[in-house]
Design a protein that fits this description.
The protein is mainly alpha-helical. Among the domains are: 41-59 and 99-234, Serine Threonine Protein Phosphatase 5, Tetratricopeptide repeat, CATH 1.25.40; 290-345, no CATH class. The protein has eleven helices and four strands. The strands form two sheets. A two-stranded antiparallel ribbon has the order 1-2. Strand 3 and strand 4 form a beta hairpin. The longest helix has 26 residues, at 124-149. The relative contact order is 0.08.
């Protein structure tokens, strides 16, 4: 009997179809997959860490303290590429708005909240602590946007389609209540001490509660949060490090710090200080202090320059001032060690 030559192509096609099905079901090796993630406590830890990236402000990362100053009366930005300059000088327009309006980190937090219950935890307190960290980050982002924009769409789920994300603005009061409620819940969930340097603990949520209440004018709530922070007995004024060391690596574990953004110099250097130094020292000189900031510093006897008996001398305006002034402001006439290693008299008054 002649063999059936048609069977071979049919069998091969079946094998190939089965192989193709297996191929398309294979989990990627170079990226996280929903099919393989959210299985272990380690996965939950990684997802929480992802919420921390630039959580202070997606637009500027941990450099927000510099940029925010440039919108106030204590600092000025010469950088035209930044919208902060236009806010500071009063010329902001719809096309030059500061980029505080950003849902990228909120989306990460919402994803974490939606998936975390799928992960088995051996210790429920460890799970609560992680949830509290992410809850605090999300509350902080909504506080920032609500403060700057006066009411934003309150999204706590995971819109899948673009039309689902086209939501109307919620009122400022609605978002404010959400922030307050979330922070109060996080304070109950969080451990008193951070799990690692840079991680959010109870004091962080209390500090954000205090700041948000202060900014929104709820002073009794702000005072209550401040007293709760004191009640933790974890933070105190630094007595062993100098003021300058407090802002260096040596001061990263100071008890003055409630929470800090962490940078690894070899992988994520903090480079924005280049904006502060003069061109002669290799800087950009794009952010400069104003006289308003200088005037805020007391004399070394605790009196303000304009008060009787302060000893202020307008001929020598930087003499006998709060010693922190000399460590913050590079003022004309001071001795300055330049980038070339040579000492010189700092002079910005003439060529």
């Amino acid at each position: 009997m002649k063999p059936n030559n048609f069977l071979l192509p049919i069998l091969l096609a079946g094998v190939l179809m089965t192989s193709c099905d297996d191929f398309f079901d294979t989990a990627p090796k170079d990226a996280l997959s929903p099919a393989t993630f959210w299985k272990t406590e380690s996965d939950a830890q990684k997802a929480a860490v992802a919420c921390y990236e630039d959580w202070v402000s997606p637009a500027t990362g941990s450099s927000e303290v510099f940029f925010a100053d440039c919108m106030s009366d204590i600092c000025y930005s010469f950088t035209g590429s930044s919208s902060y300059k236009y806010v500071g000088n009063g010329s902001a327009t719809r096309s030059s708005t500061v980029k505080y309006y950003d849902y990228s980190i909120i989306r990460r937090c919402n994803t974490f909240m939606a998936k975390i219950d799928k992960v088995p935890f051996t210790d429920s307190k460890a799970k609560d602590n992680l949830v509290g960290q992410v809850r605090t980050i999300r509350a902080w982002r909504y506080f920032q946007m609500n403060f700057w924009y006066g009411g934003v769409p309150l999204i706590t789920g995971l819109p899948q389609l673009a039309d689902e994300a086209k939501l109307p603005r919620d009122s400022e009061e609605t978002v404010k209540k959400f922030v307050y409620d979330e922070l109060d819940q996080a304070i109950r969930e969080l451990d008193e001490r951070p799990a690692a340097r840079g991680r959010i603990a109870r004091g962080t949520a209390l500090a954000i509660k205090m700041r948000s209440a202060l900014y929104w004018g709820d002073l009794d709530r702000a005072l209550s949060a401040a007293r709760d922070i004191q009640g933790l007995h974890l933070y105190e004024i630094e007595k062993t490090l100098s003021y300058q060391e407090l802002f260096s690596l040596r001061g990263r574990d100071s008890k003055e710090i409630i929470c800090s953004m962490q940078h690894i110099p070899t992988t994520e250097p903090f480079g924005n200080t280049i904006r502060l130094f003069s061109n002669q020292d290799g800087g950009w000189a794009s952010m400069v202090p104003t006289q308003n900031l200088v005037d805020m510093f007391e004399m070394d006897n605790g009196l303000m320059p304009g008060e009787p008996g302060s000893g202020y001398d307008p001929i020598h305006p930087f003499a006998h001032r709060d010693p922190r002034l000399a460590q913050i402001i590079i003022y004309p006439g001071r001795d300055w060690l330049g980038a070339n290693g040579q000492m010189r008299v700092y002079n910005t008054l003439d060529k």
